[in-house]
Amino acid sequence: MNITIVGTGYVGLVTGVCFADMGAEVTCVDVDSAKIENLKKNILPIYEPGLDIIVKRNCKRNKLHFTTDLENSVKQSDVIFIAVGTPPGEDGSADLKHVVNVAKKIGTYMTGYMVVVTKSTVPVGTAEKVRQAINKELESRKLNIPFDIASNPEFLKEGAAIDDFMKPDRIIIGVESEKAQKIMEKLYKPFTLNSNPVIFMDIPSAEMTKYAANAMLATRISFMNDIANLCEILGADINMVRKGIGSDPRIGNQFIYPGIGYGGSCFPKDIRALIKTARKHNYQMRVIQAVEQVNNEQKTVLVDKMNDHFNNNLDGLNVAMWGLAFKPQTDDMREAPSLTIIEKLLKTGCNIKAFDPEAMKQARNIIGDKINYANNKEEAVANADCLLLVTEWNVFRIPDFKKIYKLMRQPVIFDGRNIYNAEELKTIGFSYYCVGKKYKP
Question: In whole numbers, what is the pLDDT of the chain averaged over residues?
């Protein structure tokens, strides 16, 4: 089966590589010629554990190809996945211009039946816009070529995307014809041999499922952060509360860890798009709007704690920051809490020195020389007045705190991910602050 993936961003690249690894003939297309040339050399535009190995393997097997030639790719395809970006517009709605533009190109170049699949996260009704765009181009060519539209939202976690694709807990596919369903069943059969379910449904429901899933997970995060903030006020310990509610099988222990808010390419964008979609139809997503508000405020919680500790006098402080990416195992800094923290601290006159195992290049592209960059975690804390743990990379989990104590000018730690032992740090001599429990310095 010949598959074309249009868009070599996070979703498109992972999708194409994994299909190729299962034996499909895959061509990944992108308008960015420099990116395509780099991919041919196994230089990836993103950091994702294990992805470079699979790219190299399948290029060598001649199963995976990279090109800017969309026309030739369309003409040879049985299935085309649209996996281009859907960046948020100024009003929060998903910008579909890239999706629609690809659909137009498909209608311009197609010569026979194919299934056109929306893989990008798109609002309900997008598949219909794709259909209309293709039909318009076919009409202008005076052709009546049959095709099917499908929706196949992705559920990939950055940092674990390969396993998520290869061993999915479910595959959601929206279709409208039996023919399209059979083709999609055949395509995904290698991934379902262990009885992982493929759930077929109508296209609008498939489109909505992606947004509903991300909204639910974001809601759990904001709920726990809201509870954590109340715990601090009342003298409760959010870590104990988390264990207590997580033992309830109706709740479980996933996505109930307090912290400094969610970020990344999915949750913030999808939450805003869902709110905007509802407003277009005269409905207010009251819970989801509160989720977004709580998350935006939670990103500043460490700065608030710093102001309390240093009596609102942060000017001139040397701040060490461990972690820049929005989560471990990725270099993605889109909507990362670190960006909000850095912006706030720079306005107060702080000097920031940061270290992240993978996101340093991204940080330099986004922040430039507004902050300093360390080569390792020890260099970041040298002569620092405080340390902020922002991203819980493994390299930060069990540092030599006695050594860290000696390196710092003032031994103060603000733990944004609740991964350290307060009593151990206090014994060494640190003042310690976390999220959801108030410790005396």
Answer: 95
- What does each C-alpha distance from 81 to 65, 143, 165, 238 come to in angstroms? 15, 22, 15, 43
Structure tokens at 163: 């396993």
**Stated pTM of the model:** 0.91
| Dihedrals phi, psi of 160, to nearest 5 degrees | -140, 25
Question: Given its phi and psi angles, is residue 142 left (phi above 0), alpha (psi -120 to 50 degrees) or beta?
Answer: left
Beta bridge partners of 388: 321, 414
User: Tokens 């471990």 belong to which residue?
Assistant: 328
From residue 316, give the alpha-carbon distance in Å to each of 323, 346, 377. 21, 10, 21
Look at residues 301, 298, 303, 221 and name the one whose alpha carbon lies nearest to residue 266.
221
Helix axes 267-280, 286-298, angle to 10 degrees: 150
At residue 441, the pLDDT reads 66
% pLDDT > 70, the chain: 100
Q: What is the pLDDT of residue 415?
A: 98
Whether 231 is a known active-site residue: answer no
Burial 27-40 (b: 16+ CB within 10 A, else e): bbbbeeeebbeebe
Neighbouring CB atoms inside 10 A of 403's CB total 11
**Count of CB atoms situated within 10 Å of the CB of 307:** 15
Q: pLDDT tens across 222-250, in order?
A: 999 999 999 999 999 999 999 999 999 99
Catalytic entry in 266, 350, 386, 434? 266
CA dist 179 and 183 (Å) reads: 6
All domains of the chain in start order, with CATH: 2-201 (3.40.50.720), 211-297 (1.10.1040.10), 299-433 (3.40.50.720)
Residues 90-106 have pLDDT tens digits of 777 888 999 999 999 99
- In whole angstroms, what is the distance from residue 218 CA to residue 6 CA? 28
Cα(85)–Cα(98) distance, rounded to whole angstroms?
Answer: 7
* Mean pLDDT, range 107-130, rounded to an integer: 95
